Amino acid sequence: MTALLSIHNLEVGYGTIPALHGIDLEVNKGEIVTLIGANGAGKTTTLRTISGLLKPRKGGVTYDGQDITGVKPHVITGRGISHVPEGRGIFANLTVSDNLELGAYLRKDKVRQSEYDRIFSLFPVLKERMKQNAGTLSGGEQQMLAISRALMGKPTVLLLDEPSLGLAPQMVQTIFRVIREINAEGTTILLVEQNAHMALMTAHRGYVMETGRITATDDTKALLASDRIKKAYLGG
């Protein structure tokens, strides 16, 4: 099987400081793949490189059979990769409605009402908030909006960076339920998540990253059963 998204021998740095040391990673069509690791391991750097926000020193990124290394972020988004960044990145001074419209900005086709209906079925509260400024939403509602805005671009691949960060446990359950639903509807997902247990319970396969290197990869059942993973990331 040819991977839909693949990273090969990727090296990325910030100035003279190396962040990724020649990593390889693959995501097949229809999968949820998670990338877990401690803070500073290089997880966010990986997503930012895929979406074109960072340029690698070496190696590359392939998507749907094409090399997208160093391609501008808006071009990558237009090709079908949407990135929900850590910290959500919503436009606080614009309404919920405006944020959703901006998510569809690069599309050449018309947004249908059924797409809004889909968003509202995933996150009913957003329907009530359409005229509110996004900055007045709760943290959980802002995360819902960030995911919904990305979905308005009709992505083939969704990159999620720490979607549960700072959220109450009940809201975390909601976000992960929606991640599974989005995937079941056909969207491929690469998930970076500090809550390793939740991520491994949700994804099909996982990669473990330590100080800019991939140190383990397997299906999530095997990773959940691994004593080393339990001790390092699952509090066991």
Describe this structure in words.
- The protein is an alpha/beta fold and 236 residues long.
- The chain has a single domain, classed as P-loop containing nucleotide triphosphate hydrolases (Rossmann fold, 3-Layer(aba) Sandwich), CATH 3.40.50.
- It contains 10 helices and 10 strands.
- Helix 3 packs parallel to helix 6.
- The longest helix has 16 residues.
- It is globular, with a radius of gyration of 17 Å.
- 39% of the residues are buried.
- The model has no long low-confidence stretch (mean pLDDT 93).
Write the layout of secondary structure elements.
Layout: E1 5-14, E2 17-27, E3 32-36, H1 43-50, E4 58-63, E5 66-67, H2 73-79, E6 81-84, H3 96-103, H4 113-122, H5 125-128, H6 139-151, E7 157-161, H7 169-184, E8 188-192, H8 196-202, E9 205-210, E10 213-219, H9 220-225, H10 227-233
Parallel strand pairs: 3-8, 3-9, 6-7, 7-8
Antiparallel strand pairs: 1-2, 1-4, 4-5, 9-10
Tell me how many strands there are. Answer: 10
- The count of helical stretches stands at 10
The fraction of residues in strands falls at 25-35%
CATH architecture: 3-Layer(aba) Sandwich
Summarize the structure.
The protein has 236 residues and is of the alpha/beta class. It has helices at 43-50, 73-79, 96-103, 113-122, 125-128, 139-151, 169-184, 196-202, 220-225, 227-233, and strands at residues 5-14, 17-27, 32-36, 58-63, 66-67, 81-84, 157-161, 188-192, 205-210, 213-219.
Search tags:
236 residues; alpha/beta; Rossmann fold; 4-stranded antiparallel sheet; 10 helices; 10 strands; 26% strand
